[in-house]
Amino acid sequence: MTTKIIFRNLFQHPLSTLLSLLLLTCGTGIISMLLVTRHQLATKMDRELQDIDLVVGAKGSPLQLVLSAVYQLDAPTGNILLKDADRIAALPLVKEAIPLAYGDSYRSYRIVGTDSNYLGKYNCVFSGGRIFNTDMEAVIGSEVAAHTGLKIGDTFAGMHGLSDNGHAHTAFKYRVTGILMENNTVVDKLVLTNVASVWKIHDDGDEEKEITALLIKYRSPQAMISLPRMINETTPMQAAIPQLEIKRLFSLMGVGIKTLQAIAFAIVLLSGLSVFIALYTRLKERKYELALARAMGSSRMLISCLLLCEGLIMVISGFILGIMLSRVGLLYLSKYSRMSVFRISLLPEEWHLLLVTLLLGILAAALPAIQAFRLNISKTLAHE
Amino acid sequence: MLQAIQLQFAYNAHTIFQYPDLACNRDTPLLITGRSGTGKTTLLHLLACLLKPAGGQLLIDGTDTGLLSNSKLDQFRGRHIGIVYQSSHFMSALSILDNILLPRFFSRYTPDTGKALQLAARLQIDHLLHKRPAELSKGEQQRVSIARALINNSQLLLADEPTSSLDDDNAYRVIQLLLEQAAMSHAMLIVVTHDARLKQHFSNLIYLER
């Protein structure tokens, strides 16, 4: 009967209930989506950073260099001379230097010339085949395999540039020698080959050999202080520290996220207000009903609790609907963007959001509940 | 047996109402009359334990209601006293059947649908049980109020101006209905009214004067 009374009363005024619910759903939905997107991006970017201490590439925007070389997101800043890169790689402060050479793509998946260390860095496991041994052999990531249908032994020609509309290098065809298992890193979306293959395709004869970037791991923390400065000041290349650049990226995004969050919080507050107004105006109509309930033996506590429950049920269902909305939104976002941001379980921040909405519900129902508690039954029944 | 001994009610420090002693048992329903402004409704609310008296004693079937704590009094009222109000009010969101069953819920009894159906049949409202209160006529609403007041096997049935806006025929019918239903439920009946037409139906009468 308790639930019946509560729900019947909520459905008694479907429009005002719907409005409050809608506001709550939108507010919590937007906040949750922002929280999850941010969290998923941060963890994914962190994971893909692996232990890359420094990225060396052509001069330009350091953020662009990091995005292109580590996350395969932006266009490269340009090329660097192989001999310059080799000089850095040979320094005693450098433990490991992985070369990256860009230039082509296949059906908009990037073809990256590198070496076996790159696969080792991302803990790649072959689902079939083997690594590239000679020129024009290629290893493809799981997503590339799934989308292009390439199998081991198949050949394909790279397209010049990183978009789909370059000209095809039909004179040189790659042969697939291995397919990697999915490991949720950038490698899933890459075609990997050796650096020499990239040179071979773009060989104009007498030009000096170039690569695009170098991923460096330090031998000792000491390198952290001297190496970036040395590269930036004494070579035509630039050194970018990925951790720093990512932090900068998130602080740039942070302004936008904060603004959106503030708007979403305003919506949630508004919804709290609308729950309050709905309960409060209904209280006036329901005063007599509540007095009647008291006359029928209800304790003060019970009718206050009924009102409190109405408020809580509103905010809880709003929160649940909001989370559902956010998960559906994330699913679509993941489908149409390059990064998967979907997750089903709640973040700690989302549990905090639940707490905030619960508090809001209690607050909204508090005044009506207190008034119901203090209701003068006799007066209310006598003056209808 | 109901006994009210020297009941007093204080509207404020200066205005104190002193009510005459009154008694009522199951065989002799009580009619309380008086002009408006003589504190009839207040007396009804005192007898219904909706108000606490400033002085005096109210005994209902041996229970001294003045000795009950607030929550005990709420429960006592719910379980033993049924009230038919001057104009009928309901929980508008609930069906007639649920409204009749409400006192059982509020006094923490199990819902007794069988008893509700039996009362509804007795009061000839069994065809209305699934409607909403707003869909009923005034007369039908009053019958539902009576069923609701009797659902907990109340010891005391109180009626506030049950005939005030009715013509002679209907007033007669309503008062007969109340007398009959109270008798069938073995409940004491106290009617508070300014309607002089009802006097002929009661042998136990109290006239309130200022």
UniProtKB/TrEMBL annotation, chain A:
Keywords: Cell membrane, Membrane, Transmembrane, Transmembrane helix. The chain crosses the membrane at residues 260-280, 301-331, 351-370. GO terms for cellular component: plasma membrane. Pfam families: FtsX (PF02687), MacB_PCD (PF12704). It is found in: Cell membrane. Residues 17-221 form the MacB-like periplasmic core domain. Its main location: membrane. Residues 263-376 form the ABC3 transporter permease C-terminal domain. It is a multi-pass membrane protein. This is ABC transporter permease. It comes from Chitinophaga silvisoli. The lineage of its organism: Bacteria, Pseudomonadati, Bacteroidota, Chitinophagia, Chitinophagales.
TrEMBL record, chain B:
One of its GO terms (molecular function) is ATP binding. Residues 2-210 form the ABC transporter domain. SMART domains: AAA. The lineage of its organism: Bacteria, Pseudomonadati, Bacteroidota, Chitinophagia, Chitinophagales. It holds the Pfam family ABC_tran. Keywords: ATP-binding, Nucleotide-binding. The keyword Electron transport does not apply. InterPro entries: AAA+_ATPase, ABC_transporter-like_ATP-bd, ABC_transporter-like_CS, ABC_transpr_LolD-like, P-loop_NTPase. One of its GO terms (cellular component) is plasma membrane. This is ATP-binding cassette domain-containing protein.
